[in-house]
Amino acid sequence: MLQYERFEKIMDLLETQPTIRVADLVPVLGASESTIRRDIAQLDEEGRLRKVFGGAVSLELESGQRTNRNVNAPKRTVDVKEQTQVDEKTQVAACAASLIENGDLVYLDAGTTTGSMIEHIKCHDAVYVTNGARHALQLARRGFKVYLLSGQVKVSTEAIIGYDAVGSLQKYHFSKCFIGTDGIDLSSGLTTSDIEESMVKTEAIQRSEKVYILADSSKFGLVAAITFAPLSAGQIITDRLPDDKYRSKADIKELNTVNNKKLHE
User: Fold this and answer.
1) Burial 174-210 (b: 16+ CB within 10 A, else e)
2) Beta strand 226-229 pairing with 189-192
3) 3-state secondary structure of 217
4) CA–CA dist 30, 114 (Å, integer)
5) Among 23, 83, 89, 219, which has the minimal tally of Cβ within 10 Å of its Cβ?
6) Greatest CA separation found in the chain?
7) Backbone angles phi, psi at 148, to 5 degrees
8) DSSP of 54-92, one letter per residue?
């Protein structure tokens, strides 16, 4: 395939999916990773896409213009998030913490619901990796073995993000990961408001044997700026499922099934 053909193929792919990875382009383009990296670098210089660690994202995605739907997931700081849906988050977090077993290598995503897991974790014969600065301190204080990713600190979410964080994830192969989300939507999938946070979430999911998405019921129907994974990426643990249409698209663990049945009777 000639260079201009590779360029057009790369741009065509970015019209149909939000991000592309160099490794995934190798069989599609029939070229080496080093050649594809040079192609992406040149397209970045020409202003046709944005080069990121391990691949590229579309300029439309970066500016939040990819979706034609209303981006309705609110952007809130950690302190604000901690005061919302407290009981629901606690219930989801306790269930998630019970899934950790001896010998697990666990990735714990930054966020308030994943953070709520920490007080419920009982398994000390496991290793924890996180991009949550506060999570790391809380885990260490409780005597757990924990590693914090390197990278840029985002103050509003207390998350370690960016290319360095993605790079430091690439040496791990997690048995389980627990991921937070700003929105869950039938069309847009799992979404978050920050492109560099989305890269970390995507990488962690791809490096995990079992994936759990933690979300209270208020997250359903919300769409944030960037899709980081499809609904099928892992099991979604929620207190209550507000719409049964999600069952055909995702593996849902609904904790309040009895209460839900009463509401529909």
Assistant:
1) bbbbbbbbbbbbeebbbbbbbbbbbbbbbbbbbbbee
2) antiparallel
3) helix
4) 40
5) 83
6) 63
7) -105, 130
8) TEEE-HHHHTT-S-SS---PPP--HHHHTTSSHHHHHHH
Domain 78-264 has CATH 3.40.50.1440: no
| Best CA proximity match to 228, nearest among 171, 170, 185, 165 | 185
List beta partners, residue 253.
Answer: 237
Residues shown for the chain: 265
Q: What pLDDT was estimated at residue 84?
A: 62
Residues of the chain with CATH 3.40.50.1360: 78-264
Alpha carbon distance 80, 34 (integer Å): 44
**Using CA atoms, how far apart are residues 170 and 186, in angstroms rounded to an integer?**
29
> CATH 1.10.10.10 spans which residues of the chain?
3-62
**Looking at the domain that runs over 3-62, which CATH code has it been given?**
1.10.10.10
pTM of the model: 0.72
- CA atoms in the 13 A half-sphere facing the CB of 60: 12
User: What is the block-wise mean pLDDT of the chain (265 residues), using blocks of 10 residues?
Assistant: 88 81 90 93 86 79 49 53 73 97 98 95 97 97 97 90 92 97 92 88 95 95 88 96 94 77 39
Question: What's the confidence (pLDDT) of residue 261?
Answer: 43
- Distance between CA atoms of residues 219 and 241, nearest Å: 10
Residues contacting residue 80 through CB under 8 Å, at least 6 positions apart: none
Cα torsion through 8, 10, 15, 17, rounded to 10 = 160
**Amino acid at residue number 5:** E
Parallel/antiparallel/unpaired status of strands 226-229 and 105-108: unpaired
Coil, strand or helix at 186? coil
Picking from 58, 66, 54, the residue whose alpha carbon sits closest to that of residue 24 is: 54
